[in-house]
Write a structure and sequence with these properties.
Keywords: Metal-binding, Zinc. The chain is α/β, with parallel strands linked by helices. The chain is 51% helix and 15% strand. It has an eight-stranded parallel β-sheet with strand order 8-5-4-3-2-1-10-9, sandwiched between helices. A two-stranded antiparallel ribbon has the order 6-7.
């Protein structure tokens, strides 16, 4: 199964009402482990890279990692640039081969956001790529992007006009969700997802998924959240797995990096298979 487009993955999930894990990787180990988990679960997966990850690893190195690890992959996978407010980074990633981008202009007035998103969609189409859009910032800071203040919620009519005018392939609304770790179970606006889907027929991206309950995931996915973003959960799993292993290594005075890598990798594989089962994408590979 070759790498496929974001739209092919998300549209199938939207039609059949399951959610596809969209997981932010941070290095080569997490990229390989997420892909391995998807293969094990027989699940499509959306691999996401933040602007911070693109800049820290380097565009060419990251692209080489992706192409080498997905050669001959047995499940549908796609590469997505998450929350990017920088037009140049979007252009660079699209030109290099990223399959989709989220142009995050949520800090701009809606009119300017809409104008520039139209341009990004046109640019992406030139590469056969797709675009996720948003007009409301998701509360919380993720890889240096975002704000801890509650976002202003725009009217349903404004969101619908944005979706229809820009032609975005996926839309990420603010429904009470937040990036990072929730201090309590979030109070979510489920009806807003239903209203957007019924009005536009466009799949919804659910951000701030780390920490939501299984019941909330199931409800939102059944309403049309076909792309479910997971970033914080992977970071926590990755770092805690490293920490636990290294504490054990220190106690035993045994220092074997390959053993550390194997242990941490398995944690990320298990995270991925667990998400696929939870969101209903396990066994949905084609």
């Amino acid at each position: 199964m070759p790498v496929v487009s974001l739209k092919e993955i998300v549209d199938r999930a939207f039609q059949e009402r399951y959610g596809v894990p969209a997981i932010n990787i941070v290095n080569d180990l997490t990229l390989e482990a997420v892909l391995a988990g998807a293969v094990e679960a027989r699940s499509p997966v959306i691999v996401q890279t933040s602007v911070k990850t693109v800049k820290s690893i380097g565009l060419d190195v990251l692209w080489s990692m992706w192409t080498s690890m997905t050669e001959g992959i047995e499940v549908p996978v796609t590469l997505h640039l998450d929350h990017c407010p920088e037009r140049q980074v979007i252009s660079d990633c699209l030109a290099r081969g990223w399959n989709s981008v989220l142009f995050d202009a949520s800090t701009m007035p809606v009119e300017e956001n809409q104008r520039q998103t139209v341009e990004v969609v046109a640019e992406a189409r030139g590469y056969g790529a797709h675009v996720e859009g948003e007009i409301e910032a998701i509360k919380g800071v993720e890889d240096g992007i975002g704000s801890d203040t509650d976002p202003r919620r725009h009217s349903l009519a404004t969101s619908i006009e944005f979706i229809e005018t820009t032609g975005v392939d996926v839309f990420a609304p603010s429904i009470g969700n937040a990036h990072g770790v929730y201090s309590a179970t979030p109070d979510l606006d489920f009806q807003r997802v239903t209203d957007l889907v019924e009005a536009t027929g466009v799949p919804i991206a659910l951000h701030g998924g780390s920490g939501m309950t299984d019941a909330q995931f199931s409800d939102l996915i059944s309403r049309g959240c076909a792309k479910v973003n997971i970033s914080t959960a992977l970071k926590i799993e990755f770092m805690k797995a490293n920490l636990a292993f290294l504490r054990g290594a220190e106690e035993q005075d045994k220092w074997d990096p390959p053993s550390l890598f194997r242990d941490v990798r398995q944690h990320i594989v298990d995270l991925t298979t667990g998400l696929a089962a939870k969101f209903g994408s396990a066994g949905k590979a084609w």
